[in-house]
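Appendix B, Record 12. Input sequence as logged:
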Amino acid sequence: MKTIEIKNTTKINDYKEVDGIELSTITKNDSDKEKLSGLLLYGYEMKFGSKPNENREVYEKTSINKFIEDYFIANKLNIPVTIQHCDDLQHLCGRVLVVETNSVGFYFVVYVPKTFVNYEILYNNIKEGILQGFSKEGYATDYEYRYNELGEFDYMLIKEMCFYKLSIVATPANSLGFERIAQTKIENSTKLVVEKDKTIEDELFV
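Logged structural output:
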């Protein structure tokens, strides 16, 4: 796997319009024959680091895996994508093609079809840097409150959560969670490919 450029942000780090490409080029599964026409978005929703995010949260690296496996993959469901955490049809814009939990963070590939009613508005807001990142929708099911030396609340450690949607947002909460600018290989990553006709696929990247 080629190296991934890691920046000090969780902003959407790449996007492109596609027309008629096969889903297999994204999932690397030859049986995925669906043709994609629309917008592909790539980026980290969460980068692991020593500091809590802007919501005073720290996530364990496996915190979203179990729910994705037990609900979405087991039931052959897609992870839906919204805009600004709104649930109406004007904001329900696409689906997650790939979730990758690796040593850096939670990495997503998102597909927004051209048939989405507000496609041009969404595309322009991403191009202009107005919609900038991803954000999880869900709630913690296993967590601990952590306190500083003075006994004051410091952050919430989230060990496991129900993660039921991904949202494209203007101000991602996890932008300060990773502290270095580097170019690195992603080692020991677990790739969770969410597809209707496929079970979980674990791959080791070096």
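Confidence is low (pLDDT under 50) at residues 1-9, 175-190, 193-206.
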